[in-house]
Amino acid sequence: MANSKLTVEVVSPERRIWSGEATLVSARTLDGDLGILADHISLLGVLVPGVVSIKSADGTDVEFDMAGGFLSVNKNQVAILGQEAVK
Amino acid sequence: MGAQLRIYRRRMRSVKATKKITRAMELISASRIVKAQQRVVASSPYSIELTKAASAVAQYSNTDHPLTMTVANPKRAAVLVITADRGMAGAYSNAAIKEGDLLIASLQARGLAVDAYLVGRKAVNFYRFRNRVITASWTGFSDNPTLENAREVSADLVTSFLTPTEGAVGVDELHIIYTQFKSMITQTPVAAQLLPLSSPQAAEPRGVLAMYEFESSAETVLNALLPRYVEARVFNAMLQSAASEHAARRRAMKSATDNADDLIKSLTRLANAARQAEITQEISEIVGGADALASASAGSE
Asked: Pairing between strand B136-138 and B187-195?
């Protein structure tokens, strides 16, 4: 499955922050930095405050400052549930 | 002006003033529904994803955690009822309170003691008037709840859920009553069980759930998930209730305005008839007076 991509949703309790296709999602969990590529095993992790960066399918990089939350991966569906950090 | 006519005019003035108020409230509610509805839509992905994650954990971990563990012998349950702060919304608040009473009755039939957690002045007044025990209540934000409000409420619920049930403290189950916003014209009060998760009605299955890996451990994930999950569900319930409240108020105020219109119409007819009667009477009085004068002067000649 060379062409498979991740469908990513970044959501906060109040709104959907970002959604789209991506090739790589990296985030920092309690256990350390974590990079997620397509076909990753189903995972549920706790995010620590920090930057979540997403390499989207069209090649651009997006970054979000999160104040903690959760990361859930299931069959190429990635959900980042968290609070946006106050800027 | 005759007494009758004056009374009709006075009543018309008062109905017109009321109509202005109900019309204004209708328009305000109508404009707020859209915003409230957008907030529901915006908050839904988070709530859905979190529920999905929580039910995944519930299904794929065998950690003994309060989030997933059903107590063999539940003794107490908490019921959170979400209603409005203000009236003028038809049966909105009462419908939610009734739904709550049904749930409380069914819980009591199972032998559970029920703690009442109330949101909205209407529920608080209802309970206070009937001398029922209120465990905790929050008021003042029913038409525009914020995440902070939801946090405040859910923090209390989680604390009492995590407290071991003993005597009059702690609860084994967490239920919530809110008004589901189905459409502009349909809002239904619903009862849902928040915790523990394993009960079939708590989380609707959304397709087959996969095997999960936990980062770092199932326990840590669950500990972090529990308060956020309750918070998200409570927040979503509050937003839906707020949208429902506005929709119910708009409908109630629309029918009040329509009724005022009908009332004004029939009062106008009555006033017209009274005015006509007055004129007729005056004419016959004048004619009668003229007649009397004419016959009196005819007799003297």
From this structure: unpaired
φ, ψ of residue B42 to 5 degrees: the values are -65, -30
Domain B21-254, what fold?
Pyruvate Kinase; Chain: A, domain 1 (3.40.1380)
Shortest Cα–Cα distance, A1 to chain B (Å): 19
Task: State whether A15 and B210 contact (CB < 8 Å).
Answer: no
Cα B240 to chain centroid, rounded:
10
The H or E element spanning position B206 is none
Higher-confidence residue: A2 or B291? Answer: B291
pTM above 0.90, yes or no: no
Which chain B residues contact residue A47 at CB under 8 A?
none
> Using CA of residue A22, residue A23, residue A27, residue A31, what is the dihedral sign?
positive
- Domain span at residue A13? 6-84
Q: Which ipTM did the prediction report?
A: 0.81
- The torsion angle over the Cα atoms of residues B61, B66, B69 and B71, rounded to 10 degrees, is 170
